[in-house]
Amino acid sequence: RHKNPLICYISNRIFCYKPGKMGDSHDVCRQLLPRAIFGINGKVENGVRQHPVTGSIIFALGNKIGIADYKKNTQEFVAGHTNTISCLDLSKSGKYMASGQINHMGFRGYVIIWNYDQRKEIARHDLHKVSVQAICFTAQDRCVVSIGGVDDGSVIVFDMEAFSPICQTPASRAISGNALTVRPLHNNPYFFVTAGDRHLRLWSILREEKKLYVQDVLMASKTRVFYCARINKTDEFAYLGTGTGDIVKIVLNCCDRDHVSKQGSTSCILGAFGTHNPRKPTGRDCNRYVNGVRALYVLEGGRLLIGAGNGDIELVEERTDVPLINFRDYPGPTWPYLRTLKKTHVSGRISSFVRSKTDMFYICTDTNEIYGLNIKTWVLKLLRTCHTKSVYCITFPKNYSGVFATSGKECIRIWSSGRKQELLRIMVYNFNCACVRFTHDGTSIVSVWNDGIIRAFTPITGRLIYAIPNAHNKGCSALAVASSGRLIVTGGIEGQVRVWKIDPYRQDLVGVLKDHSGPITSLDINYLDTEVISACTDGSCVIWDIKRMTRKQVVTANTQFMSASYFPTGVQVITCGSDGRIIYWMVYNGALIRELTASKKSSVNCLAINETGDYFITVGSDLQVKLWDYNSGAVVGIGSEHASSVISCAYSPCMTMFVTGSTDGSLIIWDVPRDFWGRPNPPDVTKYSLPKTSSKTRMSDVPSRVNSGTNLKTTKGENIDGLLKATPKDDLCCVECPPCAKKDTKGVDPYAECGIVPDVRKC
C-alpha cells in the first residue's frame, strides 16, 4: 500500500519498514487497565482507613494513595506525592483525605489535602522539614493537624475553611522526646492530643488568634514511649499504648479554651495497666504485651481491642472485682487491672485497626497483610496479602495461565489469576529468592536463593524435593529450566553460569561457564534446549552452547544488561539495560538489528515477550509499564498504576494478560487489549527436532557432586494444574522449608577431605 517500502528477510522474520517516523502504524497508544492489584504498605501507622459511605478501603502504597473496593474488586490510585507516604487520614464525613510524606534530607515534606469524590488535590503545604510523622482531621472537619519528624519537631494546624496553615509551634519541650502520634477529640474540633517519646500533651486551637495553647499531662513518676492513642466517645478518658507493653489511662478534664483543661483541674494519669494472670501470686500476676502495644481501639462497655508488636490481638476489659485504688500499694509500676476475654495471633506487628461494621474489624500488619476479625464470634480470616519487599521474579507455568509464581524476601508465593488471591506460600527465613521457575511438566517449582542454594518444591504441598547447597559461591541470581526438566542453568553473583543435571536421587554439576565479570541478571534457554543467553551487569550478553559447553556469541553495549530473552523461534534475542534502551540482536552472528529508546531518564529493568512474538512488555524505574509491537517497534499501550520502581514482569501463556511487580512488594495483573493478543507467525510453524549425533557430550556419566540429604521424589500425581482444586476458596497454605540436610560430621576427621596431616611425625 505504501510507495517504495523496504522489505527485508532476516532469518525467518519479515520486516517491512515504511520511510518516515517509526510507529506510524499505531497512531493511538492505549491506556492499559489493571485487572487486579495486590499491594499495601502496612508499615504506615494507622495507614488503613475505610470510607464511611462507600465502604472502600483507603491505604498508602509507595508515593500514591490506593482506594480499593473489595465488593467490586476494583482499585484506583491518587498520585501527587514525590516520595513515600508516611501518614494518612480520612475525615469523619468522608469528603477529604490528608496525607504526608517522607523526603530526602534537606528537602521539605509535603502535606496534601485531597477531595475524595473528585480524587483531586485541593491544597498542600511544605512547612515540615524532611518528613511528616502523623496527621489527623479534627472533629467536624475543621482543621488538619500534622506533626513533623525528628528533623522538624513542629505542630502545624491547617484551617479547612481558609485552606491555609494558621499556626506552627514546636511539638515538645527541650526535656522531652519527639511526638509520634496525634489524636483529635470526638466532640470539640479545636482540641487534640499528641503523644510520643516521654511526650504527652493536650492542645487547644485558637483559630481567630492563630495560636496554640498546650498543657502537659501529669504522669507522676512514670516515663513511657507512646506508640498509639485512643479517646473514648465522651472525651473523658484517653488510652495510650506504650513501648513497655502496658496501657496508660489518663483523664482529660477538658475542655477550656484558654486553660486547655477545666479550671481548677488538670489532665493526669490514672495508671499503667497490664493483663491479670490469676495463676500467679500477687506482685507477679501482671502480664505485659511483647514488643509493646502498637494499636488500640476503644469499644462499647469499656472494652479494649489491643494489638501488640509480636502479632497478639486481645479483647480486654477493666476488672470490676477489685477497685482501682487498691493497686496503689502494688509492688510493680504496671497494675494488673485488665482481664483478657479473647485472644488470637497474626503474623507481623499490628499497625492499624479499622472498624468495618459493629462486630467486624480490619487488621493491618507490617507484613502487608489485612485480616478480618469478627469480635463477636472471634473468627479471624486472612483477606489480602502481598510481598513485604521487592518482587524479584514472576513466572507462569508452561501453557497454563490459571496460576503464577513470584519470588521475594524469604518466600515463594503462588497466586491465582482467576480468584485474585494467594494460594501457597513457601517460606525460607532470612534469605531472598532471586528467581523461580516451573518445570514444563508442572511437577516441581525450582528456585535459586541468595544463600547459594538451589531448592525445588512440590507445586501443591510446597514440600522440599531436593536442595543443592553451595551452587554458587556468593549466592544465586538467575535461573533457567530446560523443557525436559532434567537440565537447569543457574547464574551467580560472582559471574559464573553453571549447568546442572537433575535426576530423582542425584543432582550433578555438568559444567561451569566463565566469561562474565559481574552478577548474572537473567538467563533464558531457547526452545530447542541447545542454547542459553546470559545477561550481565558488566555490559555483555553471552550465548552459550549448553551441549558442548562452549561460547557461541558475545554481544556488548555501553549499559548494564538487566534482562535478555529469546524470540519464540530462537533466531533473535531482545535485551534491555540501565541506559533505557531496548536492543534486538541476531543470534547467528551477534549483529545489532534495531535499537529502541524506552526511557531517557531511567533504566528498563525487565522485559517479557508473548508466545507468538508479536508483542512484548517492558518495565522500568520510571514506574511505567509499556506494551510494544515487536515488528514496528512502537508503543501500543502504557500503564501507570505502580507507585515505585517496577523490576519484574511476565507474560501469560494465554497472551490476554501479564503481571508486573515492583520494589514496594505490589503486584498488578494487567489486561491486554484484544487487538494486541497476537497471532501465530508464521501460522503453520514447522517443528524442528535435533538430529541424533554421536559427538561426545558432557551430559552423561557425570560423577555425583551433590548429596542433598533429602532424596525425595515428587508426590505421585502432584501437578501445578491441580493447585486450584486442592486449595479452598479464601484459603492460604503456608509451608516452612526445612534447613538443608548436612552430613553428620561428629567423630569425622576434619582433615580427611583436604588430605592434610597435621602431625609431622605421622606424615
TrEMBL record:
Q: What is its main location?
A: other
Q: Where are the WD repeats?
A: 469-503, 513-554, 597-638, 639-672
List the InterPro entries.
WD40/YVTN_repeat-like_dom_sf, WD40_repeat_CS, WD40_repeat_dom_sf, WD40_rpt, WD_repeat_EMAP
Q: Where is this region: Disordered?
A: 691-712
Q: Which keywords has UniProt assigned to this entry?
A: Cell projection, Cilium, Cytoplasm, Flagellum, Repeat, WD repeat
Cellular component (GO) terms are:
axoneme; motile cilium
Its annotated compartments are:
Cell projection, Cilium, Flagellum; Cytoplasm
Taxonomically, the superkingdom here is Eukaryota
Mind telling me which SUPFAM superfamilies this protein's record contains? WD40 repeat-like (SSF50978)
Q: What does this protein do?
A: Microtubule inner protein (MIP) part of the dynein-decorated doublet microtubules (DMTs) in cilia axoneme. Important for proper ciliary and flagellar beating. May act in cooperation with CFAP45 and axonemal dynein subunit DNAH11. May play a role in cell growth and/or survival.
SUBUNIT field? Microtubule inner protein component of sperm flagellar doublet microtubules. Interacts with BRCA2. Interacts with the CCT chaperonin complex. Interacts with HSP70. Interacts with AK8. Interacts with CFAP45. Interacts with DNAI1. Interacts with IQDC.
**Family in the record:** Belongs to the CFAP52 family.
**This protein is called what?**
Cilia- and flagella-associated protein 52
From the broadest rank down, the organism's phylogenetic lineage runs: Eukaryota, Metazoa, Ecdysozoa, Arthropoda, Hexapoda
